[in-house]
Amino acid sequence: MKKSLLILLACLTLFSYSPVQAKTVTENDIQLRDDVIFIMLYPLIQQELKKQYGEITQNECDKIIKIEKLPTGTYIFNVTVQLITFEGAHGPPNDLVKITFSNEKTLDWHAIDFKRKRLKPSEIPKCD
């Protein structure tokens, strides 16, 4: 009887064991994702800067600040990028620029919003 009970207990333990394989998203994974998105949007960023400034402007401190999935279950997104423009050897004038891109109307990405704010020298953030 004891032997049967031990075998039953061992079988239940063996078949009920399922190792947890949790996936964790690291900061490196997020940075890689953002880098891929940014490099895909880079030609459009340059186009939009040329459209707004009349010429392609130099920029730095670029980052993805928001990714928004529109209707759940679709592949429609709004992606907002932020960067700082400069002239010459990283000199003023410096603008904080936020551009939102979308693929809502077509599968091609296009700018749907452009905001810029002139920064004072004391307001220029350090790049991450």
Overall description:
The protein is of the alpha+beta class and 128 residues long. The chain has two helices and four strands. The protein has a four-stranded antiparallel sheet, covered by helices on one side. The longest helix has 27 residues, at 27-53. The chain is elongated and about 90 Å long. The model has no long low-confidence stretch (mean pLDDT 85).
Concise overview:
The protein has two helices and four strands; from the N terminus they run ααββββ. The chain is α+β, with helices and mostly antiparallel strands and 128 residues long. A hairpin with a 3-residue loop joins strand 2 (77-87) and strand 3 (91-102).
β-strand amount: 35-45%
Structural class: alpha+beta
Strands across the major sheet, in which order? 1-2-3-4
Total DSSP helices:
2
The coarse overall form would be: elongated
H/E topology pattern: HHEEEE
Features:
single chain; 128 residues; alpha+beta; four-stranded antiparallel β-sheet; 2 helices
Provide the fold topology:
Blueprint: H1 2-16, H2 27-53, E1 58-69, E2 77-87, E3 91-102, E4 110-119
Antiparallel strand pairs: 1-2, 2-3, 3-4
